[in-house]
Amino acid sequence: MPVRRPSPSHLLSCAPFRQALARIRRRAILVFVFAGALIPPAAADNWNWRATALLKQARSGACAVRMADERVLVTGGTAEAALSSVEIYQFVPEERFADAAPMNAARSSHGCALVKDGRILIAGGGAAGIELYEPSLDTWTSFDSTVLRAEGTTVTPLSDGRVLILAGRASEVEVFDPDTSTISILPTALTPRQRSSVTLLRDGRLLIAGGTGDAGTLNTAEILDPETGAVTALTLSMPRAEHSATALFDGRVLLAGGTDGASDLNTLDIWSPETNTFQLLGATLSVARRNHTALLSDTNGFVLITSGSAAAQPLGSSELFDPSSDSVQPAGSLTVARTDLAGVVLADGTILALGGRDDNGPSSACGVLPNPSFRPSQSTYHPLERALVSGSTGVSALNGRISFDLTQIDAGGKSIASNARLISTFGTLVNGNLPSTPVVDLGRSDIGSTFVLTLRATVSPTQIISVQVRFNVKLRPSLVVTGLTGAVVAGQPVATRATLTADGGNVAFSGTLNLTTGGVTLSKSISATAASFSTENTICCPLAGKDTGASGIASLNATYGGNLFLEPASASTSQVVVSAIPSMSLTFGAMRLATPSPLTLNVAPAGPDLTGLNLTIDPALRPTGEGTVKAANGTPSSAALQGPGAPVFSAVPSYPLSAAAFSYTPTIADRRSGFVCFDAAYSGDARYRPVAGLATLPCAQVSGAPTGLQAVSPPGTFVMGTPSALTARLTWPNSVGIVNRNVNVLADGRAAGTILLTPDPTGLGVAQGTANVLLPFNTRNLAFTYDQSGDLLSSQASVAVAMSPVSTAMTTRVAATVSNPFSIGYTLTVNNQGVTIPGGTSLGSGIELRENGVLVQQLPVPTIPAGIAGTIVDGSSNTILPTSILVNGSITNLILPLGQHAFTIRFPGSALFQASEAQVTVRVQ
């Protein structure tokens, strides 16, 4: 369809247009509004509409939104029929309209709004559901809704970031949550009304005014609390529909124009939060108008009222409402008279009017209304901060003072003149500019207040510049959110705690707290006055309806929408999602034939690695229920799972493990196979799904049965050369036979003998035997060993023994008469009884020569001579060793007095050898 364009007479020359565009690109900070006489164009190029580039598609009833990147999105409207096409107004690198992706449905007279995450929400206008535009992707996403809304739909962003959708001939109130991209119906008892207005109040409630109902045009209004759905009924000063409603800086709401059902209106109705009533103003619009556009410039506080229709004829005039004096001033004319246009305030306060319907139908004409501006250094201040204001009048020749008037509006909407708090009652303009100027120091008592600063500068005796600047005072809260269990089972409720704190003093916590995890959101209305607010909630249920075996790290997010006293806040933490299908394993030790062996069935939540996460895993997450273990070809055995009774926390956090204890005794069949394999199952519980079996069956080698070897009544001492009776008893599980019945005896590690075991006739699993074993010299430890054989394992026993000292005999060799010096020979006979005593063995004591008990001489300790042939008699050898060992020696170089001498030659003995001595008498001559 060809696009109808306005005639050239409606367009200004391109040079002024380029100048206006340049001002837009410079992005002036605030907007001035003029009271009294307007500044003439020679003094300031303001309040003169200028034509812009044309829309690519003529359209009326379109909706326009300034996006986060300051471009303007223009959607839908009507040409010959409702449109789905979309255009974007941009001014860099040149001012123009460009095509964008079309909506999924055609819409006209619909609602639109910028969402806090930068997307644009579209609703109503003859189509069900809503659509969201993603500027970075140039794509639209539709969200289903059961509500079909026609023209007149309103879309209002709430203070907590959610979006309220109302009217369009539907009475349901929908709320869209951008955090979860979900739509919900707000339970409420609003009066059904069409062609009404919806205005967000400074306390977060909404004023819904006028419109038409079954009885015609309404003179009623309602205040809706979006947190609770509560409704408060009000009465307008007169019936009104197709009007505009604008929230002013001071908290009041201006209703302008419209129709009472019989005629068009030029009256103005003001709602005051102080009295919660409407009052008809004395000032009126210069012309009655309906279906017009009213825009509050947040850079100046004044309301521009433009376009619309009167007596069914499009209007081109514009007017300004001055809230400081509740007066109306003319504000120039549109480039083309039209109604049902879309309007938007740009970042620098410039007003952009788009399309509409003129005498010939839908129009593609557009215009801008540039303005000078002022702005506070920040829109929201905090206690102990200083509010600063700066800006430009746009009148370069204007120098001198600009006066300040300060009004404080408290949380209840009461206005208080506060000039006494001004740091200075005026600022200084230099070439029309006000540098950053301090206005007021803010304290804790200002929390919840809005300040409106009115600035006035005199251009001439009949010309005054007047503008309002608004800023709020709030606390910056801190929000902390935690998961109370450290982890959550997929598809199960999540226990959370969220805590809001301010600056330590009592403050009103109210509004909405949203908790989101796993794609599920819980919205909670809060109300408390305290130094902090904490709430514990259960969110049900993340990953519900999805693969409940899923696990991983998810985020637990909390957002607080704020209120009059507190700014919005957000917080997040890591949330572990464990699988609803737990992990299962079976652990066991070595398996021995006929021996009960412990098995442990371990069942634990399956989730991600927790290393490095500061989590305490609640034991309540441990699996409960019953476990079953079954050996191959065996009978299943069941046991209840048991787990920790306290939170699990360590340097490397772990999941709370549950376990069930079992026992298995391998049989001969297992032993013959060499191994036994096991399977296991888990019954499941309220949190976790059953597990039918192990993915891989664990198997264990089966060794022989254990044996026990005992030395029965072992000898404490033995006599060398005399066989010792040694008795050994072997025990083993009575279900296993015996193959090898020999027990070897080691004496200090040397083979000493063998004991043949004979089964005990009193029962199975016991065998005993006795053998006479000739023990080696100086045996200290006897070791009994049964070697592994057949189905039995080896075993050992040991006892300590001591040898009785070996007997000795002393003989001497000397003449009866000797002369000095002389020698006495001796022989020490060791009675070894045919047992080897190793050569070089020390006898432990020296040989003594005593006379009458007096030591005459002592010889060194003698040793057993080497080289005696033969081996030890071990019970099986026929080798016979000598029964005694002779140790010869002599006492030499004796010099004694002449005469008779009686000597004793003595071997004192030791622990291994007995003492012995001999007497000898000699005469020295």
From TrEMBL:
It holds the Pfam family Kelch_1. Keywords: Kelch repeat, Repeat. The keyword Kinase does not apply. InterPro entries: Gal_Oxase/kelch_b-propeller (IPR011043), Gal_Oxidase_central_sf (IPR037293), Kelch-typ_b-propeller (IPR015915), Kelch_1 (IPR006652). This is Kelch repeat-containing protein. It comes from Paludibaculum fermentans.
